[in-house]
């Protein structure tokens, strides 16, 4: 049957967030009854500088609205979810407890290379999902490329999710020779990211060239052929 996936990011609960907006998003997600909720990170926007604890009220609401209603859930760590640091002093430090609410990654006991903490993969139905951690970024090629190759050989759709996008037109950070090149080299079908508090979708693109140009495929019909490139989506 069809796999229905809800994709959302930067929903943020807490005193720095707009709670009525969060409730509306959570209600809309639940009404569509997706098989999987893919959350792209930033669950909590709390107000304190270098908080010492993660308030239980945040965790209760996350569990009630973003975990319990869904059969499968895959969560990406956002910078506001990880422990605070000098660059992000209002990081909530809630991630360890939030991470415990989502589905377990698939096991690969014979793998030569292992993913880092908070990273992993899961196959649900006809789709292979990979969750990556942006903080700090590290090229996942060694452990992820063999898994994507196997998934493609099985005819699966391949999707990567991370918090900070590899390409975006908002608050742009140049990543075409790093994250963008590394992700397109893996040739996934889709890459989802959040962080920007906006929505963007790009044409199918391929690995950036040495001169910095990015090859892309424009579909006149609006239909995209699997294998022609990777579609990057910002949704959060």
UniProtKB/TrEMBL annotation:
Q: Pfam families this protein is in?
A: Metallophos (PF00149)
The residues covered by the Calcineurin-like phosphoesterase domain are: 5-199
Q: Which InterPro entries match?
A: Calcineurin-like_PHP, Metallo-depent_PP-like
Give the transmembrane region(s): none
Write out the GO MF terms: hydrolase activity
Q: Tell me which Gene3D superfamilies the record gives.
A: 3.60.21.10
Could you identify this protein by its name?
A: Calcineurin-like phosphoesterase domain-containing protein
Q: Which organism is it from?
A: marine metagenome
